[in-house]
Design goal:
nucleotide-binding; ATP-binding; globular; two-stranded antiparallel sheet; mainly alpha; three-stranded antiparallel sheet
């Protein structure tokens, strides 16, 4: 018994020291090397501070909608719904989001709605939408703001983030930054 317990206690102590001390300092040091020193992507707009790396709620028709959140955009309660695609309650929620989108975007067919506009991400705080999710909202925003669709298309292109190193991930658009650019569009 001594033969197993002593090594287990040693391993526990080593893991405790490593993961609560050394590993934490390594991650902190790596964060300090980033642009904002590990404080996130801070955006100050009209005197208010926002974090562009955390999803923001945009439901006003004059803005690009953000991705739905399973936690109502509460960063302290990050998490997905954990409901599968066969769950009736989940399907009702998604259908309600589709119906709401169609009411606010007449002329768009259900099949044209990208999934990221009606389903929440795993964290519930995804700050980005896909390029098709932005484009499907062009007509509504152009009509409300009196801006040409071509100008909005240019705005989308200017705010599109390419995949990491051109390979990893997909093109995406940060909704907060896109909507701030939209407000600043003359």
């Amino acid at each position: 018994m001594k033969k197993n317990i002593i090594p287990a206690i040693r391993l526990t102590l080593v893991c405790f020291l490593f993961f609560s001390g050394i590993y934490t300092l390594i991650v902190l040091g790596a964060a300090r090397l980033t642009a904002n020193k590990g404080k996130g992507d801070v955006v100050v707009y009209h005197g208010k501070t926002y974090y562009a790396n955390v999803g923001q709620k945009f439901t006003d028709d004059k803005y690009f909608y953000s991705r739905p959140s399973a936690v109502d955009y509460n960063a302290a309660a990050a998490g997905g719904s954990n409901k599968g695609p066969s769950n009736r309650e989940y399907l009702k929620t998604v259908q309600a989001r589709i119906d709401t989108f169609l009411v606010h975007n007449p002329g768009i067919k259900k099949e044209a709605i990208p999934s990221d506009l009606v389903t929440a991400s795993g964290s519930g705080l995804d700050p980005d939408i896909s390029v098709p999710a932005a484009r499907v909202q062009l007509k509504r925003i152009a009509a409300i703001r009196g801006i040409g669709e071509g100008n909005l298309e240019q705005l989308i292109l200017a705010n599109t983030e390419k995949p990491l190193l051109g390979w990893f991930g997909t093109e995406k658009i940060n909704v907060l930054k896109l909507n701030i650019a939209l407000d600043n569009l003359k």
